[in-house]
Amino acid sequence: LRDQGLADIQKTADLDSINKIRVRLLGKKGPITNVLRGMKDLSAEERPQVGKFANQIKQDLQAKLDEKKSQIEDDLLQAKLQSEKIDVTLPGTSVAQGQPHVIQQVIDQVVDIFTDMGYQVAVGDEVEEEEYNFEKLNLPKDHPARDMQDTFYVTPSILMRTQTSPMQARMLEKHDFSKGPLKMISPGKVYRRDTDDATHSHQFHQIEGMVVGKHITMADLKGTLELVAQKLFGDQLQVRLRPSYFPFTEPSVEADITCFNCMGKGCPICKGTGWIEVLGAGMTHPNVLKMSGVDPNVYGGFAFGLGPDRFAMLKYGVEDIRDFYLNDVRFLNQFDQKG
Ligand code: PHE
């Protein structure tokens, strides 16, 4: 019985048959149980011997069953691991990741520099009231300087803003000067009725800046521009101011920085002059302050407007402004910050 049992167990290959054999050999109706049950009919001498013998067989079979069972379970686990194996060294499916548009990258850099200096960021609307785009900036209806900015009108009094400067008037009106000076930066899109070519786009970007408070001078303007230019392009950069004209600043200036390509030596980018024009600026005109309810006898300040499109063209040597607006990813991916 024992040898036959052991051989049967050895042959089994699944848990189901193991259970069946266990019931057949060791169950309540099995031969071993029968023998043990029949012990009462045996003589006192026979009883311990038979008992010992039957128990030994029972134990052997039990051990063999347990051994076989765990072996089958082991085999099953191995097979499962084998079939579900994952090769972690295989290259994964890469997920295409975008990045901010190159113009947005320039805007973010400039805005970061100004917010570090305590400027607030004010975002205006691209559809603007004529009053804020012109009148409140000291450009009355018949002012010839309106010709400087060809305009898309939505209605006779609503237009696509030609500049971010309307935010000067809006922020002057809003600001509580008892809490300290107004320091704001306002980036965004602007529109002009220009024919698109390599250097003109009917839609482009500006970053407006304004500081108005007490005792603010042109030296503050120059120092601020110098600091920003140096943070953007390098410590050696200088700023030069040239007289210019804007209706909302008096005096008005155009600011040049040392050509960051040749560092003032003269190259094709700066057309041999060593300088590149980067923005318009000036001291806020008293009329602008007055129209926004700010007393020009107490407060004064400066404003500037720079073009991130031009910045990006100069910085990356882009020759056609239209490239920024074609959404050709082959072009845009060149400005991947991730490198
Ligand atoms: N808004 C002017 C322009 O579009 C730039 C500017 C802004 C000039 C602020 C002076 C002060 O040309």
TrEMBL record:
Main location: cytoplasm
Residues of the Aminoacyl-transfer RNA synthetases class-II family profile domain: 110-314
Complexes and interactors: Tetramer of two alpha and two beta subunits.
Binding residues for Mg(2+): 250
Similarity annotation: Belongs to the class-II aminoacyl-tRNA synthetase family. Phe-tRNA synthetase alpha subunit type 1 subfamily.
Protein name per the record: Phenylalanine--tRNA ligase alpha subunit
Statement: the UniProt record of this protein carries the keyword ATP-binding: yes
Cofactor binding summary note: Binds 2 magnesium ions per tetramer.
Native source organism of the sequence: Limosilactobacillus secaliphilus
Enzyme Commission number: 6.1.1.20
Keywords: Aminoacyl-tRNA synthetase, ATP-binding, Cytoplasm, Ligase, Magnesium, Metal-binding, Nucleotide-binding, Protein biosynthesis
HAMAP family named among the record's database cross-references: Phe_tRNA_synth_alpha1 (MF_00281)
SUPFAM superfamilies reported for this sequence: Class II aaRS and biotin synthetases, tRNA-binding arm
Cofactor annotation: Mg(2+)
InterPro entries recorded: aa-tRNA-synth_II (IPR006195), aa-tRNA-synth_II/BPL/LPL (IPR045864), Phe-tRNA-synth_IIc_asu (IPR004529), Phe-tRNA_ligase_II_N (IPR004188), Phe_tRNA_ligase_alpha1_bac (IPR022911), Phenylalanyl-tRNA_Synthase (IPR002319), tRNA-bd_arm (IPR010978)
Catalysed reactions listed for this entry: tRNA(Phe) + L-phenylalanine + ATP = L-phenylalanyl-tRNA(Phe) + AMP + diphosphate + H(+)
GO cellular component, one term: cytoplasm
GO biological process: phenylalanyl-tRNA aminoacylation
Domain of life where this protein originates: Bacteria
Subcellular location: Cytoplasm
One GO molecular-function entry: magnesium ion binding
